[in-house]
Amino acid sequence: MMQQSTRFPLDRSAIRRLALMLLVAVPCLAGGHRAAAATGEDPDWPCVQRKVAEISPGQVWNGPPIDSSADAWRDDDATAQLARSLASRRTEMEEAKTLIDDFAAKAGADKNRRLTMLFAGVLATVNQDRGSIMNGIGRFARRQKSLAEKIEAQTAELDTLPADGTAEQKARHDELDEMQTWDTRIFQERERSLKYVCELPVMLEQRVYAIGKEIAAHLDK
Questions:
Q1: What is the spatial distance between Cα 56 and Cα 45, in angstroms, rounded to a whole number?
Q2: What angle do CA 15, 18, 24 make, to 5 degrees?
Q3: Whole-angstrom distance, CA of residue 59 vs CA of residue 120
């Protein structure tokens, strides 16, 4: 009788549930695609949080309209450099507050315009970084879906191999079993990282809101 590899013991019913997990979570049937298209949702988006392609100013800013400042910050080297520093997660919030204080103190009579221009730069930079992260999440989900389909196909083929089969069938069983063990392990390890990955866009939205609030506090009303 064939023996299952014991390096990572697998429960076949658990494998089926695992393989179907992402297939269910990410709509992949024609109906799922139609429903996603009708609501404007991305069928490859794996996160609980709804996918919002871009943070709008109205979500995170209560200062003057930034339309006229949307690109002007790029032409001011000091403002552009500070905007990128404030947008970076490597810059702690306490340091960000000090940098904003210094910028506001030196802005002079044109302070409101310069502060608005600074926030426009922060928002644009965060949206660019956030967009790259979200594209990466989409690629991650597609790889997981492909791997889940592979695991399901392996399980289906294993089910067709008789317990008392030929030497060739036994060899194929052992090969599939080894492949499935490693594929399942990879799938599970990736799945454990998904929660953190999905939180990154939210963390960036929270950051730009906090930065916007701090900048707006220095505006002359």
A1: 20
A2: 135
A3: 13
93-122 pLDDT, tens digit per residue, is 999 999 999 999 998 888 999 999 999 999
Closest listed residue to residue 119, CA positions, set 212, 2, 4: 212
Over residues 128-176, the pLDDT tens digits come to: 999 999 999 999 999 999 999 999 999 999 999 887 889 898 899 989 9
How far is Cα of residue 152 from the mean position of the Cα atoms in its chain?
25
| pTM for this entry | 0.73
CA distance 219 to 72: 18
Cα 111 to its chain centre, rounded Å, is: 36
Rounded distance, CA 111 to CA 105, Å? 8
Q: How far apart are CA 33 and CA 43, in angstroms?
A: 6
Helix or strand run (H / E) with residue 79 = helix 77-87
